[in-house]
Amino acid sequence: MDDNASFEEFYRANAARLIGQVALLTGDREEARDCVHEAMERAWIRWRHVSGLNDPASWVRTVAWRQAISRWRRVRTAYLTLAQLRAPEPVRDHAVRISETQVLYAALGQLPIDQRLALVLHHVCDLDVATVAQQTGSSVTATKSRLVRGRRALAELLDGPAPPGSEAEGSSTRPSVADSLTTQSWETIQ
Questions:
Q1: Which of 28, 35, 151, 154 is 20 to 30 A from 175 (CA-CA)?
Q2: Cα 77–chain centre separation
Q3: Would the pTM of this model clear 0.70, i.e. be above it?
Q4: 96-190, which class in CATH?
Q5: Could you give the count of Cα atoms lying within 13 Å of 186 in the half-sphere of its Cβ?
Q6: Residues 6+ apart with CB under 8 A from 33
Q7: What are the domain boundaries of the chain?
Q8: Using one digit for the tens of pLDDT, what is the confidence trace for 100-156?
Q9: Are 47 and 5 in contact (CB under 8 A)?
C-alpha cells in the first residue's frame, strides 16, 4: 500500500477517536479538533517514520496534547497580561442544566494537567499504567499516584466534599455522581 493510501486509512480509523480523547484534555472539542489536525499534518510529513512505529496513534495523540499545552500557555500568558490591564468582571450566576458530558469536561478542566492526562490516557484511551507512564515521561509510581489523586479530586468535584462524619473513601450513603460515570459515559465523549 502506498503512503497516501496508508495515511488516509490511518486518518479515517483514528481521527474521530483522537479528537474525543484530546477534547477531554482541552475541554473544548473544536480546540481538540485543531490540535489533532495539526498533529495529523505533522504525522503526514513524517509518515514513513510514524507509520513504522508500534502505535502511530499514540504518536499523534502525544503531539496533539503537547500542541494543546502550548496553546494553553499562550492563552494563559495573554489572559494574565489582560487581567493586569483591566478590572475583573462580575461573575454571572446562570442556572443552566448541562449534560453529564459537560459536567465531566468541566471537572476534568479543573484538575492539574498531569492528573487529567493520566486519567484520560488510562480510562479513555484504555492504556495500561506502564504505557501511560511511558507516554507522559513519568515513572509507574508517579503515574499511579496521579491516577489515585485524579480520581479522588474528580470524585470531589463531581460529588462535592464528603459529609461530616463519613470516611474520606466515600462511605456516604448518598449516591455518587462519580460512580454514575460509567464506561459508556466516558465513551460518549470520545
A1: 28
A2: 21
A3: no
A4: mainly alpha
A5: 17
A6: 19, 23
A7: 1-93, 96-190
A8: 667 777 888 888 989 988 988 888 888 899 998 998 889 999 999 999 999 898 888
A9: no
